[in-house]
Each structure stands twice: as C-alpha cells, then as structure tokens.
Amino acid sequence: MLNETTKSQNAQGFARLDAENFPQFEKGWVWLVGAGPGAPGLMSLLAYHAMQNCDVVVYDALVNPDILNWVRAGTELEYAGKRGGRPSHTQTDISLRLIELAKEGKRVLRLKGGDPFMFGRGGEESQTLAKHGVLFRIVPGISSGIGGLAYAGIPATHRDTNHAVIFLTGHDATGKMPANVNWPAVAMAAPVIVMYMAVKNLGEIATALMAGGRPADNPVTLVSNASMPHQQVHSTTLAEAGEFVKLKEPPTPAIVVVGHASDWREILDWYKAELKENKIG
Ligand code: SAH
Prior knowledge:
Helix content is 29%, strand content 19%. By secondary structure, the protein is an alpha/beta fold. Strand 8, helix 7 and strand 9 form a beta-alpha-beta unit.
C-alpha cells in the first residue's frame, strides 16, 4: 500500500520528476542523446528533460520524427542524417556544426538513434568536441540490438541459449564487409551474433561465418523497423541468407540475429498486431 506522501508525489506526475536532481542543460554544451530504436516511450527521462531544455536539436535519419514533437515551441530542428549509407553530411561537417552551435552559446542536443556509443559515431563526435574544448554529456539510449530485439521476442541472452553475445557491424566506412573483424573467431565465439548495418553484405557475412565453422542451418532473423508500428520480422538460415535478402529485400533499418536466440519467438513474440497501437510501448 502507498503511504500518503508517496500518493501525493505520484499525483504530480512529471512535475515530481522535474523536482529530482536532473543535471542542468548549460548554454554552450552539447548533449549526445540516444533516442532508442524508434518507439517514443523508449527514450529515457533524461533524454526527455534534454528535449525540453535545449535550444537546437541536430538529429539523425534514424530518429523517429514523432520524437521531435517533444521539444518546446521555438526549438530549432536541424537534420544531419545520412541516406543510403552515403553521407549527405560528412562526419566532420556534423561535428563542426555542433561546435559552431555550441560556440554561439546554444544548448545543443545531438539526437541519435539507439545508443550514441553503439555504432552511432558518438565516440567520434565527442572526441572532436573534446578536442575543441566544447563541454559535452552523453545520454545513453536503448540500442536497437538489444531493445529492438526485445520487440521481436528475442532475448539477447538467455541461460538456455547463450552465455555470450557478440555485437558487430556488417559495414565498414566504405560500405564493405569489415575486413578487420576476425570472422572465423566470431563464428565460433558466441552462440548469438547481433549485427547492425548488415543487410547489404549479409550473403558475404554468412559465407564467412560458415567458412569459420558456423552450421549452415543456423537461424538468421531480420528485425526491420524494430519497435515501430511497421516492424517486420523475417527468418532464414545462414545457407540461404544471401539469396533471401536479394529476393525479399527486407526493409531497413534492420537488425540481423544469427543463432538460436530467435527460437524463443515462438513463445515470446509479444508485440502482436493487437498490441501495436499501444501508445505507451
Ligand atoms: N546507435 C544505433 C545504431 C546505429 S547504426 C543503436 O544503438 O541502435 C544503424 C543500424 O542500427 C541500422 O543499420 C540497423 O542495423 C540498426 N537499427 C537502428 N534502428 C533500428 C530499428 N528501429 N530497427 C532495426 N534496426 C535498427
């Protein structure tokens, strides 16, 4: 049972959260904020606080536009995305723009999909900020490779399936399958492999994993637009993955999971059609 104090605090809703000790968004600072995989409810309270207290949001292509409605009236919105794997703004341009805005004395919110430090170049951007003496804060987000999988009923770890999980990118800076990943080691190191940006090179990656000893019938699951109303899940095997993506052209962004973690979908696939309208999800 709630006592009286707790009840009255709860009645104040977000006002009570504002009274908590959120860090102040100071002028001239850049906050690199993770927006989560898509569903607005998956943003953190600190991310919401930042949206309410910034002067400008510099956002990526992967950010769900609905999330941008959470700013105060009058907040500037700047797009800094990349399209089709090709930079429409170079990474240097984006970092320099953040510096420029911060030096104008603005409170700059750099909004990125998922988590800013998980294949999101948050490391590079904050490195450049540090080099130019611009103060910054990192607000972590729910990465699509964990939270996005949950929306497909796939636990990233489960004691009956895997005690280890590997996260990797299927794309290097030039768009090719990364040569500096030790594919034979990856093939055998963990029962579950979660891959970002891996759809385009999936055939080549599957071949490398099989050459490293991964069974050809190992399940491959693609979760497209995870956590969004138009989420889709496709299943294939390592042997067929290359042909599968060529024929079916699964929508992107997509997370690719290799291994038996996806077997749990049979009983854990909770995000069914009738739940997709759930506004708090
Ligand atoms: N920082 C992000 C990843 C950026 S890299 C994060 O932590 O999630 C871009 C890749 O993320 C995409 O190619 C795709 O593999 C994955 N991704 C991002 N959002 C996604 C979503 N809603 N559904 C499926 N995959 C997603």
